[in-house]
């Protein structure tokens, strides 16, 4: 007759065990109602977010230019509430405003608070974008501004050297407050210049600790030429003006300071990293943060 008995079917097609397989109980054709979020946002959305952050930064910097850093900081706090704390550009703007707010203050405590806030923002930005030469230079500049001792200048040099070890830097434009952003070669030159400035500041601090003065460092070229270890030729004195006579003890102390300072410079000019040992460009009179306002 062609009809199969029910027990024949059950014997030939064994049912799978459902133990530990609760997923088999879900209705077929229906997906998870709460899928995991996509860790990589669409490019258009990311670009829109960067544009919104940049607009908020520009607005805050406009108030900073008008001499109202308090208003600029309030705008940036509001921007953080909207965009979150994961934007290196927003942190860069916060560091810039705090740094500029500290500059005119006479109260050491208030100035120190702004410096700490600026450094905290810069460190967070570097953590979010460790391959950014732009942020490495900015962080090093803030360290230099807040430095007051040899240990602080060592931190400046260490951050500059970290930046110079970045072989494949990220695009600086997303982290730069003013466009067009400087290129990698320019940023590396800026880092080398800052190393030289930190070296000289460290030597100056060390000389003052020995009871000397900055005029004992006059044998260094500080203007338009690279740092040199050779003394400058003595300046010609007008006829009729006699040189002040120094005691042997004064001459001995001055020579000791010069020799020790030269040795310190030699140590800093021969870092362990070959990338840092590259030839350094001339020192500039001012080393402003690229793209900051």
What does this structure look like?
- InterPro entries: DUF627_N, TPR-like_helical_dom_sf.
- Helix content is 54%, strand content 0%.
- Among the domains are: 52-128, Serine Threonine Protein Phosphatase 5, Tetratricopeptide repeat (Alpha Horseshoe), CATH 1.25.40; 130-209, no CATH class.
- It has 293 residues and is an all-alpha fold.
- The protein has helices at 6-12, 43-65, 69-83, 88-102, 108-128, 133-146, 150-164, 184-209, 248-269.
Short précis:
This protein is mostly helical. The chain is 54% helix and 0% strand.
Mean pLDDT: 73
Question: How much strand?
Answer: under 5%
- Low-confidence regions: 1-11, 20-27, 29-47, 219-243, 275-290
- Tell me the major beta sheet: none
Approximate helicity band: 40-55%
**What is the ordering of alpha helices and beta strands?**
HHHHHHHHH
Backbone structural class = mainly alpha
* Oligomeric form: single chain
What is the count of β-strands?
Answer: 0
* Gap from first CA to last CA: 94 Å
Radius of gyration: 31 Å
Give the overall form: elongated
User: Given the structure, what is the number of helices?
Assistant: 9
Organism: Aegilops tauschii subsp. strangulata
InterPro entries: DUF627_N, TPR-like_helical_dom_sf
Domain DUF627: 59-167
Biased composition (Acidic residues): 284-293
């Amino acid at each position: 007759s062609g009809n199969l008995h029910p027990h024949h079917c059950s014997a030939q097609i064994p049912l799978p065990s459902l133990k530990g397989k609760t997923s088999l109980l879900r209705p077929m054709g229906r997906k998870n109602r709460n899928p995991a979020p996509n860790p990589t946002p669409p490019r258009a959305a990311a670009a829109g977010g960067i544009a919104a952050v940049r607009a908020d930064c520009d607005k805050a910097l406009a108030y900073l230019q008008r001499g109202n850093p308090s208003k600029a900081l309030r705008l940036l706090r509001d921007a953080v509430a909207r965009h979150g704390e994961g934007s290196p550009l927003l942190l860069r703007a916060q560091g810039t405003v705090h740094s500029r707010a500290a500059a005119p203050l006479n109260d050491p405590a208030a100035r120190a608070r702004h410096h700490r806030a600026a450094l905290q923002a810069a460190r967070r930005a570097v953590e979010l974008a460790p391959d950014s030469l732009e942020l490495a230079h900015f962080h090093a500049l803030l360290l230099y501004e807040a430095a007051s001792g040899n240990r602080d200048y060592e931190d400046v040099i260490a951050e500059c050297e970290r930046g110079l070890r970045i072989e494949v830097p990220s695009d600086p434009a997303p982290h730069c407050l003013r466009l067009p952003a400087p290129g990698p070669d320019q940023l590396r030159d800026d880092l080398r210049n800052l190393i030289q400035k930190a070296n000289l500041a460290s030597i100056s601090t060390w000389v003052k600790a020995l009871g000397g003065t900055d005029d004992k460092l006059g044998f260094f070229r500080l203007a338009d030429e690279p740092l040199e270890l050779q003394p400058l030729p003595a300046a010609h004195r007008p006829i009729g003006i006699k040189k002040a006579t120094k005691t042997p003890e004064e001459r001995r102390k001055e020579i000791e300071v010069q020799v020790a300072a030269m040795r310190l410079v030699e140590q800093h000019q021969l870092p362990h990293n070959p990338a840092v040992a590259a030839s350094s460009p001339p020192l500039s009179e001012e080393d402003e943060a690229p793209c900051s306002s």
